[in-house]
Write a structure and sequence with these properties.
By secondary structure, the chain is α/β, with parallel strands linked by helices. Helix content is 44%, strand content 14%. It has 3 domains: 270 residues, 3-Layer(aba) Sandwich (Rossmann fold); 147 residues, Isoleucyl-tRNA Synthetase, Domain 1, CATH 1.10.730; 52 residues, no CATH class. The protein binds one RNA strand through helix 1, helix 6, helix 8, strand 12 and helix 11.
RNA sequence: GGUCUCUUGACCGAGUGGCUAGGUGCCGGUCUGCAAAACCGUUUACUCCAGUUCGAAUCUGGAAGAGACCUCCA
């Protein structure tokens, strides 16, 4: 299925450089991505992460790897920042909405999946939830206790960062900061008297009386710590060392550094070989996020209901907008940029649809293979989708020129172009035509009738009728384009 | 305060020590009964200052501005 076998370069946060991707095992690739915390609706930032790693997944598959893709839903354990009482976000939301925590979590899980489906992100092979893996997490805590890397205090268990740092491995290798830095700059947070050091993090947290999400453990009735789920579930589904661990850049510290410390402390191995992180979506230059309360949800994007939106944007526009920027750059939201993406995507898709109709010649006036090859090189160079897309637009220009009889293409090149474009646009970039619906057959039939009638009116120079048809269709959201070879139409 | 990153044309956004990224917009043209669309072409770019170099937007130093992480976060 792969057109070419290529080397893949990935930027590894751990090393701080791009390096060649060499899987841990020859036969398959394991990828774990930190998914959303399900206490609220998915926003544009979640979409970026989902799309980034969807591209990673698609490229790996395209290159012929057998990939197991795991992405979790965090439904327990994320404590509210500004309180020291161990509130759980999902639980807090549940209390506010008078629902079961599981009900809240599941509601947002489904919403997230509907949104990522619409964005044409392939579903991961496994989507584990934290609350379904309490036993596994308790096991990790036990191992860390046995090794003396964790201590119990008032029914809670904390990871002993200093001991780990001194006896096992340096803490902070992913974020490239030293324990000294961390120590100097840790803020004074309340509720830290249980810990030996302010930078120690919870592995198990004793639940306050009114807490309803709690499980039995050797230490207390409580719930697992913030970072533990990924360690436990990653290992369970992908093994001791898997290939790729992904997530947003804001997870590098402390989340992924803590995960590394736990995993290495408990099992001795780095959980993953390559650590990939997508950058943030910004809005007016500021990071978009729930905590900042400046986010636009995907539902709002799809229906245009947010006050900052000039119009609704369909999911493919949003996907294309994100792919026009590199995943490690911040991407600033703006209506103008989204509209530009919408138009560019339409142009690309129309050119692609035109390939089959191109006239074949004895020679090609341009090098199809080179452009396709360049496009594939780009995406294999740390998933550089903007460059790949630039090459696709180069092809658009050639396709349009051939259609206009200004350039030529051979039968072989045309077939290659068709196959390659389908593979790149649909399989790798995951872009699809929005139009397809169940009633397309009926609409097509009706439209061909209407178009025939209009063509007849025009040939009789009955422009009053032909204009009336055109205007009425426009009101219905159907646009007519007249050309030399007859008229075509499209849904606007 | 500590650590780090960024600053590209009207807008978005790649990239590189020397060769037009690309998209959108604008303008010009082609097409057209008209219009729209489409297509083609064009368009004052690399924050500032100094240095290295035959040559820097790209490397080094400094300045200004912006941002991220240090706390839950995609």
């Amino acid at each position: 299925m792969a057109l070419y076998k290529k080397d893949l370069l990935v930027y590894n946060t751990l090393k701080g450089v791009k390096e060649r991707f060499v899987p841990v095992r020859e036969d398959r690739v394991g990828m774990y991505v930190c998914g959303p915390t399900v206490y609220g609706e998915a926003h544009l930032g979640h979409a970026r992460s989902a799309i980034t790693f969807d591209i990673v997944y698609r490229v790996l598959k395209y290159l012929g790897y057998n990939v197991r893709y795991v992405r979790n839903f965090t439904d327990v354990g994320h404590l509210v920042a500004d309180s020291d009482d161990g509130d759980d976000k999902v639980e807090k939301k549940a209390q506010a909405e008078n629902k079961e925590p599981q009900e809240v979590a599941q509601y947002y899980e489904m919403m997230y999946l509907r949104a990522t489906d619409a964005l044409n992100c392939l579903r991961p092979n496994i989507m584990p939830i934290a609350s379904g893996h309490i036993m596994e997490q308790i096991e990790v805590v036990k191992i860390l206790m046995d090794k003396g890397l964790a201590y119990e205090s008032e029914g809670s268990v904390y990871f002993d960062v200093e001991k780990y740092n001194d006896t096992v491995k340096k803490y902070g290798i992913l974020s490239h900061r030293t324990l000294e830095d961390t120590l100097e700059n840790s803020r004074e947070l309340s509720g830290q008297q249980e810990k030996r050091n302010p930078f120690d993090f919870a592995l198990w947290k004793k639940a306050p009386k009114e807490h309803i999400m709690k499980w039995d453990s050797p230490w207390s009735l409580g719930f697992p710590g913030w970072h533990l789920e990924c360690t436990a579930m990653g290992r369970k589904y992908l093994g001791a060392e898997f290939d790729i661990h992904g997530g947003g850049m804001d997870l590098i510290f402390p989340h992924h550094d803590c995960e590394i410390a736990q995993s290495v402390g408990a099992f001795g191995d780095m959980p993953a070989k390559y650590w990939l992180h997508n950058n943030m979506i910004t809005i007016e230059g500021k990071k978009m996020g729930k905590s900042y309360n400046n986010f636009i949800t995907l539902t709002e994007m799809f229906n245009g209901s947010h006050p900052l939106l000039k119009q609704a944007y369909n999911p493919m526009t949003i996907r294309f907008f994100m792919l026009m920027a590199h995943y490690r750059s911040t991407l600033d939201f703006s209506n103008d940029a989204l509209i530009a993406a919408e138009k560019g995507l339409a142009r690309l898709m129309e050119a692609k649809a035109k390939v089959g109709t191109l006239k074949e010649s004895k020679e090609s006036s341009f090098d199809v293979h080179k452009i396709i090859n360049d496009a594939l090189d780009a995406v294999c160079d740390d998933f550089n989708t903007p460059i790949m897309i630039a090459h696709l637009f180069e092809l658009c220009k050639h396709i349009n020129s051939v259609a206009d009889n200004k350039e030529t293409i051979t039968k072989e090149d045309k077939e290659f172009l068709q196959t390659s474009l389908d593979a790149i646009v649909e399989d790798i970039l995951g872009l699809k035509d929005e139009k397809g619906g169940n009633d397309t057959q009926v609409i097509d039939g009706l439209m061909s009738l209407v178009m025939d009638m209009r063509a007849e009116a025009r040939s009789n120079k009955d422009y009053a009728t032909s204009d009336k048809i055109r205007d009425a269709l426009k009101e219905l959201g159907i646009e007519i384009k007249d050309s030399k070879d007859g008229a075509t139409w499209r849904l606007m």
